[in-house]
TrEMBL record:
One of its GO terms (molecular function) is aminoglycoside N-acetyltransferase activity. InterPro entries: Acetyltransf_17 (IPR041380), Acetyltransferase_Eis (IPR051554), Acyl_CoA_acyltransferase (IPR016181), Eis_dom (IPR025559), GNAT_dom (IPR000182), NAcTrfase_Eis (IPR022902), SCP2_sterol-bd_dom_sf (IPR036527). PANTHER family: N-ACETYLTRANSFERASE EIS (PTHR37817:SF1). This is GNAT family N-acetyltransferase. It comes from Streptomyces aquilus. Homohexamer; trimer of dimers. Residues 1-199 form the N-acetyltransferase domain. The active site is at Y123, F403. Keywords: Acyltransferase, Transferase. It comes from the Bacteria.
């Protein structure tokens, strides 16, 4: 079997192969892109070929930036379009492609990679762990009243206007970019995605209304993408802002929409305050809780020293990477928001798989949770509480970009 990068001439073969792996047929391209795979870059795509040259597997990646705790940015290739033809599964094709791809990432100097898992049982064995989570909140229109803000909270002085998706592409790109730089766990959306309308709404060309919030000076500082579907359901694709007051203003606008039976907010972060802002707490029906972004560390010291930290302390981590047959013991020392990470022969505080380190890396999964689950071994009683304090971020990570 041969695994090689593709060229522009291979794009049709690549697209046909990945669709065949999932039993689907490619859609007809629309003018200027508009499909989920429109933003693929052929030098980042891999084809697995049999000895006689038949394509049987695919894998690709996008060049993203990931926002880490402390609002630092890191290069993060986003793995996508992974598939193996049904005729060649369980023959080592997927493992070979994953190993080849991870080696390429390291050659490019990457210290982590990310993906969205089509099946939760697949990618843990390749070192990826779920690191952010998302859900939806459904609110019946008749119970949609928000509580009045308490004294001391500044009233929103901005405004909301409704635009069509086609009218505000540049605006959406700018607002999203400001948001993702402040939100741990968020991914960049390269200009190529917006220009080619690749992905899901509001990037995709599907018709959407956009509620744009502007501050008192008229500067856009948030938006919500929505459409009215069957059964009088207002579906909100995403609500983008780094300001909780702006989110509340957009939610109030959406919940007040006429001729709507219920409003469904997609991609609501865990523990989001919107449910608590409803006058009737039980009106908000949470559901669809799921993992979203999975993280894989490729260079433990670089990854741990790249993010911001909010508690001082020392922790010895014994990290095993079964897929790459590697193991290292690292002394993590945090002081003043910065970390140092060096090899050590000291006794470990925690022993863990690299996939579990990926899960706790952004602060969205508490190390103690994985200790209680039997994933991480704590070598003394203080290890898990100390790890919880160290890895906790300034805010919960959240990712809503689909790729």
């Amino acid at each position: 079997m041969e695994i090689r990068s593709t060229t522009d001439e291979d794009l049709e073969v690549f697209v046909d192969t990945v669709h065949a792996a999932f039993g689907r047929f490619p859609e007809t391209p629309v003018d200027g892109g508009g499909l989920w795979w429109s933003a693929l870059e052929t030098d980042r795509c891999l084809l697995a070929l049999t000895a006689d040259g038949r394509p049987v597997g695919t894998a690709a990646s996008y060049p993203f930036e990931l926002t880490l705790p402390g609002a630092t940015l890191a290069s993060a290739p986003g793995v996508t379009a992974v598939g193996v033809l049904p005729s060649h599964r369980r023959q080592g094709v997927l493992s070979a492609m994953m190993r080849h791809q991870l080696a390429e990432f390291r050659d490019r100097g990457e210290f982590l990679s990310v993906l969205l898992a089509s099946e939760a049982t697949i990618y843990g064995r390749f070192g990826y762990g779920p690191a952010t989570y998302t859900g939806r909140l459904t609110v019946p229109r008749r119970q949609a009243q928000l509580s009045a803000p308490r004294a001391g909270r500044a009233a929103d002085t901005g405004s909301v206007e409704v635009l069509r998706r086609a009218e505000c592409g540049e605006l959406l790109e700018e607002v999203y970019d400001r948001y993702r730089r402040a939100q741990p766990g968020a991914l960049s959306r390269p200009h190529r995605w917006w220009a080619l309308r690749a992905g899901q709404p509001p990037i995709a060309p599907a018709p959407r209304y956009i509620a744009v919030h502007r501050d008192a000076d008229g500067v856009p500082d948030g938006y919500a993408s929505y459409s009215l579907g069957e059964h009088e359901t207002l579906k909100v694709d995403e609500t983008i802002t780094a300001d909780s007051a702006v989110f509340t203003a957009l939610a109030r606008f959406l919940l007040g929409h006429d001729l709507v039976g219920k409003v469904v907010f997609q991609h609501v972060p865990p523990q989001h305050p919107l449910r608590w802002q409803l006058a009737d707490f039980r009106a908000g029906e949470a559901g669809g809780d799921t993992d979203w972004l999975w993280v894989r560390l490729l260079d433990v010291p670089r990854a741990l020293t790249a993010r911001g930290w909010f508690t001082d302390g020392e922790l010895v981590l014994d990290v095993e990477d079964p897929f790459l047959a590697e193991r290292g013991r690292w002394l993590l020392t945090v002081s003043g928001g910065k970390a140092d990470c060096v090899p050590t022969d000291r006794a470990p505080d925690l022993s863990l798989d690299v996939r579990d380190l990926g899960s706790i890396y952004l602060g969205g999964t508490a190390p103690s949770t994985l200790v209680h689950a039997g994933h991480i071994r704590a070598h003394h009683a203080d290890a898990a509480p100390l790890a919880d304090a160290l890895f906790r971020g300034d805010q919960l990570p959240h990712c809503l970009h689909w790729f």
